[in-house]
Design brief:
The complex is a heterodimer of chains A (about 250) and B (about 350). Chain A has about 250 residues and is α/β, with parallel strands linked by helices. Chain A has one domain: 3-Layer(aba) Sandwich (Rossmann fold). In chain A, about 35% of the residues lie in helices and about 25% in strands. A six-stranded mixed β-sheet of chain A has the order 6-7-8-3-9-10, with helices on both faces. In chain A, strands 2-1-4-5 form a four-stranded antiparallel β-sheet, with helices on one face. In chain A, α3 packs parallel to α7 and α7 packs parallel to α8. Chain B has a domain of about 220 residues. In chain B, the strands form two sheets. Chain B has a two-stranded antiparallel ribbon. In chain B, strands 2-3 form a two-stranded antiparallel sheet. In chain B, α2 packs antiparallel against α8, α5 runs antiparallel to α11 and α9 crosses α11. The termini of chain B are close together. The chains are: A alpha/beta (about 250), B mainly alpha (about 350).
């Protein structure tokens, strides 16, 4: 992990009607770092990801990727600059076979530039490499109909789709939700492997016991504000956080 | 020696895993047979019916509706279901009518070229505006368009000629296609064949993949760095272009454009044809379904008052008994061909 800042978010504010979903949120993510964002339901975690990835327009604030202002760009442009995201609700591309979920992402301008992809045939090979990296059986799973895959596979498929374009930062929105204990243990190592390749990762999660072993730093949000930032070990000791979670 | 019977389809699939590496004449003719037979029947129809103008007219109109059905199917790929395909005919027809009869007297080919560009511009800009709405709202927006255009003809009776319509649209006096109904018929057949093969070619490639993914989850496509807007506009443009070509042929064959060409029946025919032909977005199925529907309805012409009832009855029967579309059952039936090994 280096000291170089990849993603810098300053004073991000977003309100829906009278409700402040984000209230002057600031955070930085350094190269090769895994940051966890936790907080009770409705604390603005997913809104934060939606704003950073360009799906929502904020009221105020700035988002910089390696010094370049990316706020206000449409979502596909943000992805092209190098911010990939996964989705909390699993909605994969059901009408195509498993590996084509990843091929789609390999057909984007950024992937074409970085991986020299010209044809769908080559993209399929690269996609199979990627899902193999995430623990799929290359021969057996690549062309399985997406409908037949269990949730754990779909979750990892979504991650594979997101990382196919070699993003600078991966925003993972609840990568452990809906998974069984066995399935969840397969996602953690996959994320660590990606991180070891130099990718900065931001993880939003409710299931803290899976999260805490992975992350270098944790950010706690409550009612649209950042209320704590620090080591994962210190979270349990903080009285404020106990109060937020347990009342 | 004992005989062994096997399905040809299964033996091809088993050996080649759907790659059509074919080794015997039986298999080659099995795969190409339906195509060759279909194309032969379509191209030789004028000879079969001894250049009977009425039969050819019916089949030409059916072919034009089939083109509209292809255009409809392309939009259905994006899960956008249109109820206003009469709009495509109306826009290109009125552009030709204005240019060649009511305002200027341009020759037909010049009108056709201008109708393609003008029609594309109008239709794509409308679709771009309707991108925000989805599902039933898109349906309503498209339903209203032909009605609006039909009403607009009353606002400019000098140019658009109100309920009278614009008649006497000139036929091309020179060029590759001399004006006869047999030639118009062949033009529709060739355009349809080109589109069927183009679709088969494009199906497995990039655009086909991206469009199917957009239909499944456009947010994930956007998050993968592909501009959903761009691909939607592309599909709209191709769909509109096919619809505009259908409209030009329609105006040419009938020599007339008026509010009756904008009626709901015109919009419903390609839709119902596609539903009868196939539930998936299979172009060949949609084309076959539309031909069947239009020719059948023309056969019931004597009972014109009951047309709409017959429409409804046909749809109910097909949906109840053949819910996956006729084309699917034709395919299944064909796959039952067996061969006998000695």
């Amino acid at each position: 992990m280096s000291d170089k800042v990849v993603l810098e978010v300053r004073d991000l504010t977003k309100s829906f009607g009278g409700l402040a979903a984000l209230d002057r949120v600031s955070l930085t993510v350094r190269e090769g770092e895994i940051v966890g964002i936790i907080g009770p339901n409705g604390s603005g975690k997913t809104t934060l990801i939606n704003v950073i990835s360009g799906f929502l327009k904020p009221d105020k604030g700035s988002v910089r990727l390696e010094g370049e202002d990316i706020l206000g760009l449409p979502a596909h442009k943000v992805a092209e600059k190098g911010i990939a995201r996964t989705f909390q609700v699993l909605r994969p591309f059901y009408s195509v076979p498993a590996c084509h979920n990843v091929v789609l992402s390999l057909l984007s301008p950024r992937s074409r530039r970085l991986k020299y992809i010209r044809r769908v045939g080559l993209a399929e090979q690269v996609a199979m490499d990627l899902i193999e990296l995430l623990g799929f059986d290359r021969a057996h799973d690549s062309f399985r109909p997406t409908r037949t895959l269990p949730p754990g596979y779909l979750r990892r498929l979504d991650i594979a789709r997101a990382i196919a374009s070699e993003p600078r930062v991966l925003l993972a929105d609840e990568p452990f939700s809906e998974l069984t204990a066995v399935e969840a243990t397969s996602v953690g190592p996959a994320l660590l492997r990606l991180n070891s390749l130099g990718m900065a990762i931001v993880i939003i999660e409710h299931r803290l016991h899976y999260l805490m072993g992975l992350i270098h730093r944790v950010i706690v949000m409550h009612e649209g504000k950042v209320i704590f930032e620090g080591n994962p070990e210190d979270v349990e000791k903080e009285e404020r956080i106990r109060k937020v979670y347990y009342g | 020696m004992a005989k062994r019977v096997d399905l040809i389809e299964r033996s091809i699939y088993k050996r080649t895993q759907s790659f059509y590496a074919v080794s015997s004449w039986v298999e080659i003719s099995y795969l190409l047979g339906p195509w060759i037979a279909g194309i032969a029947v379509a191209v030789l129809l004028p000879v079969f019916c001894q250049f009977n103008a009425y039969v050819l007219y019916v089949f030409t109109i059916a072919g034009i509706y089939a083109l509209l059905a292809i255009s409809w199917t392309l939009l259905a790929l994006l899960r956008l279901y249109s109820l206003g395909h009469a709009m495509y005919i109306g826009i290109s027809g009125y552009i030709i009518g204005i240019l060649s009869v009511s305002v200027w007297n341009l020759p037909f080919y010049a009108c056709a070229v201008l109708a393609i560009f003008g029609g594309l511009l109008l239709l794509v800009s409308f679709h771009a505006a309707s991108l925000k709405v989805k599902g039933p709202y898109f349906l309503l927006a498209t339903l209203l368009l032909p009605i609006m255009l039909a009403e607009a003809t009353y606002l400019a009776p000098g140019i658009l000629r109100a309920e009278e319509g614009i008649s006497g649209i000139p036929v091309p006096s020179y060029g590759l296609v001399p004006p006869s109904i047999a030639n118009y018929y062949l033009v529709t057949v060739f355009v349809i064949l080109i589109l069927i093969f183009a679709r088969r070619f494009i199906n497995s490639k990039e655009i086909g993949l991206i469009v199917r993914c957009i239909a499944d989850n456009e947010y994930a496509v956007e998050a993968s760095g592909l501009s959903v807007w761009r691909y939607k506009i592309l599909i709209f443009a191709v769909s509109s272009a096919i619809g505009v070509i259908a409209g030009i042929l329609y105006t040419l064959v009938r020599g007339y454009i008026g509010p009756s060409s904008l009626s709901l029946t015109v919009s419903l025919t390609p839709l119902l044809g596609s539903v009868i032909g196939t539930v998936s977005t299979n172009i060949a199925g949609a084309v076959i379904g539309t031909y069947l529907l239009v020719v059948l309805l023309e056969g019931l012409r004597i009972a014109a008052i009951y047309k709409i009832i017959v429409y409804a009855v046909i749809i109910v029967i097909v949906v109840l008994t053949r819910p996956r579309g006729l084309f699917h059952y034709m395919e299944q039936f064909y796959h039952f061909f067996r061969r006998v090994y000695e």
